[in-house]
Design a protein that fits this description.
It catalyses: 2 pyruvate + H(+) = (2S)-2-acetolactate + CO2. Belongs to the TPP enzyme family. This is Acetolactate synthase. 37% of the residues lie in helices and 16% in strands. It is built from 23 helices and 20 strands. Helix 13 links the parallel strand 12 and strand 13.
């Protein structure tokens, strides 16, 4: 076997593993790797403007394609700039490989120029991480890293490579398939758990499917199987923010999203159900509300590939550790084998119909301002009319919740948002990554005027690679969700939540070579959105919406599902100090 440099070994591994795109930013500690990439044009390198942008692009690429995202950054500040995106990927279970440069091994621990303890810094925000000190071990590490990132509960893995290891040589032979001694995710469910879940589902009078991002992470088959099992049982389906698209929004069985800004019917159905089948969700605090009042009279089945997520927050009656697709397939097979028929759930659906009459997503229009909910609804209608495959990303804030409420998702991997970490600055680079991975699709980022500025420099990336992403900004001149919480918790004292020096987004877009559009009147909304969708190349839209609109319905922190707020007039200064601590 011919000797290769560590940098060449790394690039050969990426090629062998099928990597097509790398998002990165060069620096001194990774120059040998960049030189190796120069000779391997089969890998497309996307030059970002900030390392955080690289990680979010890799997330968007991974979530929209099902392939792991790959990031390449330098040592020190390059690595630390990537930490937010790494943590975001860990929280939302996104497969990502982050390759970081490091100072030469003999300088580690000397406070050398651009040195940081990358392994120590990322130990608690990665699924696993490595410091590679021997070029002969690099190939095995890279292949193992991809295996760990993409199997079990997906997540980010960091590979830290000192510069002298990149230069040193070693023989390269493609490793055998990884058989890790201790890391063996459980894919197949225990038969007893499947048996119990099926019989409980068949006997339930008020069942509900509570679904999450794990359904989507499991792959397209899991979404198809969820739809099949829901059809067999006739039970209602709700979802977390991360699970939108796993079940079609157009279905009569769909109750909408649940949780803090979920629908009235979804939250009440969860509260009153006699059986909750949790599929790939984790009972997080934004879903459960006050724990002692969460679904008090229900039995609970929890399907999750991550053992640590089961019984962590809510105790369940049946725990099924398995891949979602595998478990659902087993449940469907057993349901059919035993000849179970769809139960009469008419009384349950009658109660749900009553809750639906609340029309919790309704909003009032005044004719003089663009309501943000209307902007999202019109965007959805216009996207449907194009007939194109549309991928929606969001930043974090009110606009994110309005998008989740008013944009209907029919398929998985079309809704990309930051859930667990709630990262402002995620959505725009994620749209770039999704567009790069899906060149025939239409990637649209729904953003707020505050959060979009976190990584707005990535407009240059979209321009350089001629990516026709669309940036749709709901501009209310506030950090909207912060302002809403200040109304709830601090008697509307708007401390530093107003943006009084916003850029001219249209001129900013033009400076980057984008098309800029401004929409200020309700009557111009439809035409402005149509112009955005019909314009080739990247487009930024400054959509001026009602400044003081709030996101409803809402369950305040520390409240129960049965204490949903529907009336915006309820909002001013109602929360206790104890509840404020949970915001």
């Amino acid at each position: 076997m011919a000797e290769k440099s560590g940098a060449d070994i790394l690039v050969e591994c990426l090629i062998d593993l099928g990597v097509e795109v790398v998002f990165g930013y060069p620096g001194g500690a990774v120059l040998p790797i960049y030189d190796a990439l120069y000779n391997h044009p089969t890998i497309k390198h996307v030059l970002v403007r900030h390392e955080q942008g690289a990680t979010h692009m890799a997330e968007g690429y991974a979530r929209s394609t099902g392939k792991p995202g790959v990031v390449l950054v330098t040592s020190g500040p390059g690595a630390t700039n990537a930490v937010t995106g790494i943590t975001d990927a860990l929280m939302d279970s996104i497969p990502m490989i982050v390759i970081t440069g490091q100072v030469p091994t003999q300088l580690i621990g000397t406070d050398a120029f651009q040195e940081a303890d990358t392994v120590g810094i990322t130990r608690h925000c990665t699924k696993h991480n490595y410091l590679v000190k021997d070029p002969g071990k690099l190939a095995g590490v890279v292949h193992e890293a991809f295996h760990i990132a993409t199997t079990g509960r997906p997540g980010p893995v960091v590979i830290d490579i000192p510069k002298n290891v990149q230069i040193a040589t070693a023989p390269y032979k493609r490793p055998e398939p990884v058989q890790h001694a201790s890391y063996r995710p459980q894919i197949k469910a225990d038969a007893a758990g499947i048996d119990a879940a099926v019989e409980m589902l068949a006997a339930a009078e008020r069942p509900i499917f509570y679904t999450g991002g794990g359904v989507i992470n499991s792959g397209p088959q899991a979404s198809a199987l969820l739809r099949e099992l829901a059809a067999l049982t006739g039970a209602p389906v709700t979802s977390t923010l991360m699970g939108l698209g796993a079940f079609p929004a157009s279905s009569d069985q769909w109750l909408g999203m649940l949780g803090m800004h979920g629908t009235y019917e979804a939250n009440w159905a969860m509260n009153q159900a006699d059986l909750i089948l949790c599929v790939g969700a984790r009972f997080d605090d934004r879903v459960t509300g006050r724990l002692d009042a969460f679904a008090p009279n229900s039995r609970k089945v929890h399907i999750d590939i991550d053992r640590s997520s089961i019984n962590k927050i809510v105790d369940v009656d049946v725990a099924i550790q398995a891949d979602v697709a595998s478990a659902l397939d087993d449940m469907i097979a057993l349901w059919k084998q035993r000849g179970h028929e769809q139960a009469d759930l008419s009384a349950w659906w009658d109660r749900i119909a009553e809750w639906r009459t609340k029309k919790s997503l309704a909003y009032v229009e005044n004719g003089t301002e663009i309501m943000p909910q209307r902007a999202i609804a019109d965007l959805y209608t216009a996207c449907q009319a194009t007939g194109k495959d549309v991928i929606i990303t969001t930043e974090v804030g009110q606009h994110q919740m309005w998008a989740a409420q008013h944009f209907g998702f029919e398929a998985p991997n079309k809704w990309l948002t930051s859930g667990g970490l709630g990262t402002m600055g995620y959505g725009f680079p994620a749209a770039i990554g999704a567009q790069m991975g899906n060149p025939d699709s239409l990637a649209i980022c729904i953003a707020g005027d505050a959060s979009v500025q976190m990584n707005i420099q990535e407009m240059g990336t979209a321009s350089q690679y001629r990516l026709p992403v669309k940036l749709f900004i709901l501009n209310n001149e506030y950090m909207g969700m912060v302002r809403q919480w200040q109304e709830l918790t601090y008697e509307s004292r708007y401390s530093n939540s107003y943006s009084d020096s916003l850029p001219d987004f249209v001129k900013l877009g033009e400076a980057y070579g984008w098309t800029g559009i401004r929409i200020e009147e309700p009557g111009d909304l439809e035409a402005g959105i149509r112009q955005m969708l019909e314009t080739p190349g990247p487009v930024i839209v400054d959509c001026r919406v009602a400044k003081l609109s709030n996101c409803f319905p809402m369950i305040p922190s520390g409240a129960a599902h049965t204490e949903m707020m529907l009336d915006p007039n309820q909002i001013a200064g109602i929360m206790s100090d104890e509840a404020k601590a949970l915001v």
